Amino acid sequence: MKDLTGKTAFVTGGASGIGLGMARVFARAGMNVIVADLRRDHLDEAEAVLRADGVSARVRLMQLDVTDRTAYAAAADEAERAFGKVHLLCNNAGIGLARSIGQASYADWDWAVDINLNAIFTGVHLFLPRIRRHGEGGHIVNTASMAGILQYSGAGIYVTTKFAVVGFSEALRAELAPEGIGVSAFCPGGVRSNIRDYEKTRPERFAVTQEGGTAAPGPGFSFNEADRARLASLTASPEEAGELVLQGIRDNALYIFTAPEFRPGIEERFAAIQRAIGHDEAREQAALDLIPNLVGSPIYREA
Prior knowledge:
This protein is of the alpha/beta class.
């Protein structure tokens, strides 16, 4: 999707942080934007920001729990009533649940999977038929994380869901490429947002008290003032992240990153994979001849 002017985007988790950064950037680029978010207070704040940007006429705000499939379907219908065809779906809603796997409860696991993974499938399930129906092409951006590429043991459940989002995005991209519908896995590193402010939105059905647990604490990092200043220099603003997403859509990028400083970790991970799998040229060629799209997917060879 090169020309986005007049196209419509549906952004979940869109009233704060990265989601609001996307919404502001999209609206400034001439897109219509549906901002869907669970929190009424964030929607009110986003409305004021977008009004100040002078783009409120191109924006609709909706309160939406993305884990409620009935409500999500109604929101999809409302989006089409507001702006007609939807071309861009940004599955951005998520929680940064910072708890190791060994410390987690069933409630932690079920909540993280429900919002970080199940809701992404729901969004695709609802909007993909609509994008196919209008036949004008489209794009789907699934917000994963650098934790979908590199593990962080202090947040094992979060890592698990975000690795799944990357795999989901890769499979969906290969599936939809012949139809002219792009898919990107958005893997932000440090972005100034409130993703760790998740406990305020924990539903009663996932209350940790059912197992005698406690709310999951944030990561226990300890930095001196100088290191805090250095760390701040490595984080992107939500608008900077939104600009990268916009460019990734225009480029039909498989991956969208915000944090080149993670390159050494990525290189170490893939070097470990290469060491473990070994090398047998004859078997590799035979496999490429027999099952080329499994052994070497075209999506990895795109420019």
